[in-house]
Every structure is written in C-alpha cells, then in structure tokens.
Design a protein that fits this description.
Blueprint lengths: L1 H24 L11 E7 L6 E10 L10 E8 L7 E9 L2 E8 L3 E10 L5 E11 L3
Antiparallel strand pairs: 1-2, 2-5, 3-4, 3-6, 4-5, 6-7
Length: 135
C-alpha cells in the first residue's frame, strides 16, 4: 500500500511539474522597446484630485520624435481595490501626445503607459506618481 501511494505521489508530482513547465513556456516574450524614451508631465504639478492634463513625449534611440503611435495611460492607486482611470492620448504634434486623466482620490498612484508604434513595437512603462493631493 505504501508503494502504491509513493507511485501515485510521484505521478502527481510529474504531472504538476509538466503543467508548470508548459505554462511558463507559453508566455509571450516581452516586446517592450527599451530604446524608446518616454517623458511624461502632469498639470497641475504636483497633481491633485480631479482631472489632470497628461502630456507625453516619445522619442527613438536617436532622440527623434516618435510619431503615429497609439498611446494609452492607465492610472492606479498603490493599494488594491480602487477602480483605475484611463486616458487615450491624442497626438498633438509629431511625437507629442496629450489627454486627460482623472485622479479620483488623494494618495500614491502609478501610471501604466502603453503604446503601439507604427512599426508594430509595443512599449510599456510604469511611472510612479506619489502624493496626489486633495484639493
């Protein structure tokens, strides 16, 4: 009986390891483009509860403006349970994007910037926004 349990335990362990190995191998590779630079500013500065103007400048490795990207910003608080805020940024001139994001309460936030360049590169950046003030 003890041998049978050991065999079953061994078989279960092999199955678990196989599932873990396969799930790790199925993840898509990160397609973030580290050569792309992002400079983000918020107005008002320091940010306050309510609407904030988000301005973003994207440049390539040579410092040239990166035009024609689709850019989105997701704002989240550092603690769980808060509904995120979203802003789709519009290109206002080559490589410069603008939009409005609603900070729904005071505290520490972070912004997830995602962009898709015209040549298909995906860009993802996390930007901390500590101390959003109440009005």
């Amino acid at each position: 009986m003890e041998r049978r349990m050991l065999r079953r335990s061994g078989a279960v362990l092999v199955c678990v390891c196989a599932v873990v190995a396969m799930s790790g191998g199925c993840r898509p590779a990160s397609s973030d483009a580290p050569e792309i630079q992002i400079q983000l500013t918020l107005q008002p500065s320091p940010p306050q509860v309510g609407d904030a103007d988000v301005s973003l400048k994207m440049t390539d490795a040579a410092g040239a403006p990166l035009a024609g990207a689709e850019v989105r910003v997701e704002g989240n608080m550092n603690h769980a349970g808060m509904k995120p805020s979203f802003a789709d940024l519009k290109e206002v001139e080559p490589g410069k994007y603008s939009g409005t994001l609603d900070f729904t309460m005071g505290g520490d936030w972070f912004l997830l910037v995602t962009a898709k360049t015209p040549d298909g590169k995906s860009v993802e950046r996390k930007i901390d926004v500590p101390g959003v003030q109440t009005k």
